[in-house]
Predict the 3D structure of the following.
Amino acid sequence: MGVALQIVPGFLNRSQLVVPVVRLSGVISANSSPMRTNLSLASAAPVLARAFAFKRSPVVAIAVNSPGGSPVQSRLIYSRIRELAKERDKKVLMFVEDVAASGGYMIALAGDEIIADETSIVGSIGVVAAMFGFDKAIAKIGVDRRVYTAGENKVTLDPFQPEKKSDVAHLKALQAQMHEVFIDMVRQRRGDKLADDRDLFTGLFWTGARAKELGLIDTNGQLTDVLKQRYGDKTRLRLIQPRRGLFSRPAGVLASLGASAGMAATAHLADDALMSVEERALWSRYGLF
């Protein structure tokens, strides 16, 4: 969804309404590195605080674009938005860009209204865990893995050991509990707007047009158009951006800091490469690359 934003200096016409806009984009995870930052409470909280501090604006617009990720971080961001909305007495308009799925949709629930383009992807109300099993691979190459524990369940779901039915059952029980929490949040926030559809909480996802019919969102539209229609053509939008820190600088700057900084950055490259593969898999699930 294209969003045309203008950064308006404070000394301009104060009769114009300036609406703060926050973009919450990316895979939701507490894991980060000096070279990248995922969407988490730590990354979102400072930007949200600045947006809700706009005294003259009755509304905060939040554009969410996420395929999901950590349920904990999703709930923390959701809760922080609702806390700020209550404290500052502001309406929250949540706009879906490409996708608000799984944890991304959980965050979207923090909006007093959810608005999505007709071609946005919305939903995936479920819980998933994915991993690889390497026990056959290490057996083929003759590797003997040795693990010593105190506690018989300390190696539950170890990818280097054969899968145990009891481990899978335990994981599925945890997922079921998380799923119920998610469903309760949807029912609480969307209430009688929800359609009576048996597929609603199965993990399926839909276009923004269908999501409107299902009651998962309120209407179809785009951020700039909706805000100007509701608050007037003279409304100006101010994008609230994260403040740039030391590690948001280009890699060349890191190198100039000395060998220790360069080594620290290099040490994260392998982790970043793996995270990139995992993130791409999440986005590609919804046809996005």
About this structure: The longest strand covers residues 91-101. Strands lie at 18-25, 59-66, 91-101, 113-116, 121-123, 205-207, 219-220, 236-239. Residues 126-185 form one domain. Confidence is low (pLDDT under 50) at residues 248-257.
